[in-house]
Amino acid sequence: MTVTATSTPPPTAPKVSGGKGGRTRLSFPVILLIIAGGLLALSAVRAITGAQDITSAGQISAALAMAVPIGMAGLGGLWAERAGVVNIGLEGMMILGTFFGAWAGWQTDPWIGVLAGVLGGMAGGLLHAIATVTFGVDHIISGIAINILAVGFTTYFAKLWFNTEEASAKGGSPKQSPPSEDIGTVTVPGVSDWLGDIEKHHWFFVSDLAGVLRGLMTNLSLLTIVAVALFVLTFLVLWKTSFGLRLRSCGENPIAAESLGVNVYKYKYIAVIVSGGMAGLGGAFLALVTSNIYNEGQTGGRGYIGLAAMIFGNWRPGGLAMGAGLFGFADALQLRNGGQSVHALLLLLVVVLAGIALWKLYRKSYLTAAISGVLSLGVLVWYLGTDTVPNEFVTATPYVVTLLVLSLSAQRLRMPKADGMRYRKGQGK
């Protein structure tokens, strides 16, 4: 069967992304102002509605735990797409990470489980690279195939490996692994208790800030620290080294890159294998930190949400981290039975939609302004007419947030120019 793919455009100047034509790059002070503005808005919602859990340390701690696997999947997507390979298979690579991480973790040491999860994800990345880079298979088709294969592989071997006499005696079953040991956590001594005292007073903004900081400093998993370090390392490698410049040039114009002596195949392979490893690490986090066991279907679409976070972040680590934090916050609401919290956030949604309506009206985009205004009015009626939201809606909150964020941020994004395009070796000679 012949796979149809888009051809790479003719060579032009070897330009890399991050400049004109895309969304304005946010500086660190601007990012801090955005975070402060978001916290101020949440503080106002908490004060008006009385939903104290919105900015509590428990909510923030849970949000951080949910953000890490999403962020790792998104970081994997960033590596692959910066080299010009679309990686829809992140979900499957995460599944491989959960399986191999749990399998090695309960038998040996949780850190060995982390390594096994990374290697499992890298194996999925290697398969995706072989299909897309070497054989030119359509990237979407290859990614979906990997997702299907990962589900089938883990389902079969879970029945084979987790249902033995030894595994069953320790709590294993055809759909879950025996539990592994904890990786370990750290808490900033003294500071956590002091922030807890401030949080209990429920002062406007001050207590909310204390709750956020306490959530980031209490029972922090060591693997979370590793994940944060990987975000920093990714930025330094891809944007501050010649290796990163060559890799990004493969995602912008591989023909021009090859004409300058870049081994495009090699850089694409490296990027996609690293992408799989990042996703595998996110899966291992779910199996070894979030729940200490492998459960069938425990990724819950987080690979796709990671892709959404990457798009929201405009293919950059800082924006991706913000997107992962947002989706992790929404994901944590359902875990904490946040019917009241989600209901309170409807008020914030009313303000956001109303602001969009006014902005679009100012820009003379009357149809979009009208739609935003009607939605804002509808959400306001919903908020005023109810005291909470159904549990079914709470469960769907992460996916609703994903759709809303993508719909609001998709207008000024700037993806790598050759992302998803077919490239054959020798075109630049």
Produce the secondary structure layout.
Blueprint: H1 28-49, H2 57-82, H3 90-107, H4 110-134, H5 139-161, H6 165-169, E1 185-186, H7 191-200, H8 206-217, E2 220-221, H9 222-240, H10 242-252, H11 254-259, H12 264-290, H13 302-312, H14 317-335, H15 339-362, H16 366-385, H17 391-409
Antiparallel strand pairs: 1-2
Average pLDDT, to the nearest integer?
A: 88
Quickly count the helices: 17
Helix/strand structural class: mainly alpha
Percent of residues in β-strands: under 5%
Major β-sheet strand ordering: 1-2
Low-confidence stretches: 1-23
Q: Overview of this structure, please?
A:
The protein has 429 residues and is mainly α. It has helices at 28-49, 57-82, 90-107, 110-134, 139-161, 165-169, 191-200, 206-217, 222-240, 242-252, 254-259, 264-290, 302-312, 317-335, 339-362, 366-385, 391-409, and strands at 185-186, 220-221. It has a two-stranded antiparallel ribbon. The longest helix is centred in the middle third of the chain and has 27 residues, at 264-290. Residues 1-23 have low confidence and may be disordered.
Question: Could you name the key traits of this structure?
Answer:
429 residues; mainly alpha; two-stranded antiparallel sheet; 17 helices; globular; disordered N terminus
